[in-house]
Amino acid sequence: MAQVDGSQLMAEGLKAEGVDTIFYIMGGPNILLSMHAERLGIRLIDVRHEQAAAMMAHAYSRVTGKVGVCMGAGGPGAANLLTGVANAFLDACPVLALGGSSAVHFYDLGDFQEFDQLAVFKPICKWSARIYEAHRAKEYVHMGMLRARQGKPGPVYFDMPGNMLVERIDEKRVWPSPTIGAKSLPIGDSQSIEKAVDLLKGAKKPLLITGSGVFWSDAGAEMQQFVETTGIPFFTTPQGRGIVSDDHPLSLLGARSYALREADVVLVVGTRLNFIIGYGRPPRFSLDAKFIQVDVDSEEIGRTRSIELGIVGDAKAVFRQLTEVAKGRVSFGESSVWVQQLGAKDRENREKMSPLLHSEQTPVHPMRLCKEVRDFIPRNGILAVDGHEIMNMSRQVIPSFTPGSRLNPGPNGCMGVGLPFGLGAKAAAPDRPVVVLHGDGSLGLNMMELDTAVRRQLPVLVVVSNNGGWTASPGNKMHVPGRDLGSVRYDQIAQSMGAYGELVEGPQAVRPAMERAWKEVENGRPALLNVLTEPTARAQTVPFASYGGESAGTSLM
Questions:
Q1: How far apart are CA 492 and CA 502, in angstroms?
Q2: What is the CA radius of gyration of the chain?
Q3: What is the rounded average pLDDT of the residues 230-244?
Q4: What is the DSSP code string of 90-111?
Q5: Residue 465 near residue 389, CB atoms below 8 Å
Q6: Which terminal residue of the chain has fewer beta carbons within 10 Å of its beta carbon, N or C?
Q7: Cα–Cα distance between 187 and 319 in angstroms, integer?
Q8: Averaged over 229-251, what is the pLDDT?
């Protein structure tokens, strides 16, 4: 009987589960595993910091709907994955993180890079485990992929002691991975579906709010059918943008705050009622609004506010049920008073925003930069956005048209994700254009990944909104310690790594520069535009957090 080692079994397990890409940095004790993975045809994308590897795996997952995989070597290599894995955890995104670790038979002797990595990952993972024996390696990989993706998604971490990775065993000791044939979706009970439709029928101002649960359920078509059957307007969390196109007639983005405040019946599907939508509470929503909450995770239902009706079920299945029952019973649509009101508010707010979108000022106003990106990026393009002001402004200006086409820091507010997200997206969808819109502060956290883009042929266009610091400057009002970064020549740094780089100093220069940069991208060369933007331009948005009654950061400026 042939002998196999734990590294080979880990690699074979990943291959059997459909893994085609791993984001990682080489190092012990994982070197054999990476060699086996390469031999099996798994693409290895070696990065410059493991944090970025986890973020790329996150983006890969959000674009493909599959589990993204990242790997760090023992000790600090694994620990460096933490920020990216924590980000995936709060974003409920399926990622499999693999960490090499010291050999079990040297535990507590002060072995090389010895610390309890498993304990560190447990609070930020859906499941964490240590694989002690090589013959169970494939079995764990299979369980990990299932647990990351099923139900409410989330990251899984496996600790891989060095002795397990080099242990050689008879192949006959390896238990074959289980296979899954047909599998049904969890559906809502029929009485609850009837009650939900009755509530919507009796509403004057109904609203649908969705999130990334619709993406993981692949329920875009079902959501659109429900919207078009009932005529109920919809809004999504930032992670849910594009699942149904933002230019759908019942998507009235400019009326978002008004709609949330005015709605009398709110159907929530596949998203948590967290800070992103004000926990579902006043003042963002009416205290009297009736909530119907649909979620595959029963623990999410009614967690942050009172609800009229909870339905535990998969978004795809429940949308089908609701549509079938609502046919001929719930009918709003573009001619209804409610949608007309939202349309008027949407137009009003767009008109207010228009002067900034067409601003001719120098330095470039960030809203004008967002408009230029909006007009440039193709409909099938993927946009990764990162940074405080530019992210908030882009949310108001740049639409999304397809599932998995918008990536941002998410509920964790994790700065530094932009470029890694862009590269993970490009690895996942090489035929789709990828544009990264970055703040200058957040770019600095992972800018060395531009080197990864050059080495690994991941051509993306990076547009930097360089306002010279973190957040907007308060101008002459007050000094904010740590805010200023100065006008760093990110374009020259890009050039030094082999990418195309250009400095852009006025609004009329943005579009021609994007066209020059895109020619480089089309030829396989990553490009970066360093656009100098107005330092005092501040996004108009609801504060993200509350510290003792004061809004986060912005309350000071």
A1: 8
A2: 24
A3: 94
A4: HTT--EEEEEEE--GGGTTS--
A5: yes
A6: N
A7: 9
A8: 95
